[in-house]
């Protein structure tokens, strides 16, 4: 008798709603700065307001929504100061993840970054911005996945990754920007393959600082 099969348990509704609302923010279904209603979301997702309220609390901690007393809940729209702080946090976390991953898993890091970069080239050649941006997000996560530092990984996922994905999906559609981006990612790949940590950290810092300047221009016009 084979009793090895596990019983599949249904996912908690709070988890499903959280993932759906996060995706709707990241993918641009909900606009930056848009006021969002518990009742409207509950109707759209066909759930009660309780899991919506729970998702608000989690997404506020991730920086994706802002809860304003006596006003309501809004999709995040970073100010100049907030964007600068977010980029400073990303630089601090990503440079440390680069150091740990290149120290602890250099061959695997080289393999995964090289594979990801090749896929980014294909997506760019097809003018497939959505896939390109997903691969961009995934490439930077590789450093954290291989750093073997759970707190570092969770901090990046919770405070940085989704916010940057949301901004990237809105502001990084122009072909010239993506062509500049792929050149920077080529240099990131080259520094990883060469196991050149100072060079890798330098290009990662430059990449984030350029992104900050680029996104700031869009936010200033809105």
Automatic annotation (TrEMBL):
<keyword id="KW-0805">Transcription regulation</keyword>
<dbReference type="Pfam" id="PF00392">
    <property type="entry name" value="GntR"/>
</dbReference>
<dbReference type="InterPro" id="IPR036390">
    <property type="entry name" value="WH_DNA-bd_sf"/>
</dbReference>
<dbReference type="GO" id="GO:0003677">
    <property type="term" value="F:DNA binding"/>
</dbReference>
<keyword id="KW-0804">Transcription</keyword>
<dbReference type="InterPro" id="IPR011711">
    <property type="entry name" value="GntR_C"/>
</dbReference>
<feature type="domain" description="HTH gntR-type">
    <location>
        <begin position="11"/>
        <end position="78"/>
    </location>
</feature>
<dbReference type="InterPro" id="IPR008920">
    <property type="entry name" value="TF_FadR/GntR_C"/>
</dbReference>
<keyword id="KW-0238">DNA-binding</keyword>
<dbReference type="InterPro" id="IPR036388">
    <property type="entry name" value="WH-like_DNA-bd_sf"/>
</dbReference>
<protein>
    <submittedName>
        <fullName>DNA-binding transcriptional regulator, GntR family</fullName>
    </submittedName>
</protein>
<dbReference type="Pfam" id="PF07729">
    <property type="entry name" value="FCD"/>
</dbReference>
<dbReference type="InterPro" id="IPR000524">
    <property type="entry name" value="Tscrpt_reg_HTH_GntR"/>
</dbReference>
<dbReference type="GO" id="GO:0003700">
    <property type="term" value="F:DNA-binding transcription factor activity"/>
</dbReference>
């Amino acid at each position: 008798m084979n009793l090895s099969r596990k019983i599949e348990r249904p996912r908690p509704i709070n988890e499903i709603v959280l993932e759906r609302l996060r995706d709707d923010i990241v993918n641009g279904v909900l606009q930056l700065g848009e006021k969002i209603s518990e009742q409207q979301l509950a109707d759209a997702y066909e759930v009660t307001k309780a899991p919506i309220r729970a998702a608000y609390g989690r997404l506020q901690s991730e920086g994706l929504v802002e809860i304003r007393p006596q006003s309501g809940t809004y999709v995040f729209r970073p100010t100049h100061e907030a964007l600068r702080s977010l980029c400073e946090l990303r630089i601090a976390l990503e440079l440390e993840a680069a150091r740990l991953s290149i120290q602890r898993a250099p061959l695997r890091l080289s393999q995964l970054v090289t594979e990801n970069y090749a896929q980014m080239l294909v997506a760019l050649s097809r003018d497939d911005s959505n896939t390109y941006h997903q691969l961009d997000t995934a490439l930077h996560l590789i450093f954290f996945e291989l750093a073997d530092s759970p707190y570092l990984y969770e901090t990046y996922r919770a405070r940085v990754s989704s916010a940057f994905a949301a901004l990237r999906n809105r502001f990084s559609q122009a072909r010239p920007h993506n062509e500049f981006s792929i050149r920077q990612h080529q240099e990131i790949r080259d520094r990883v393959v060469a196991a050149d940590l100072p060079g890798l950290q330098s290009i990662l810092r430059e990449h984030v600082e350029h992104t900050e300047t680029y996104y700031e221009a869009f936010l200033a016009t809105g």
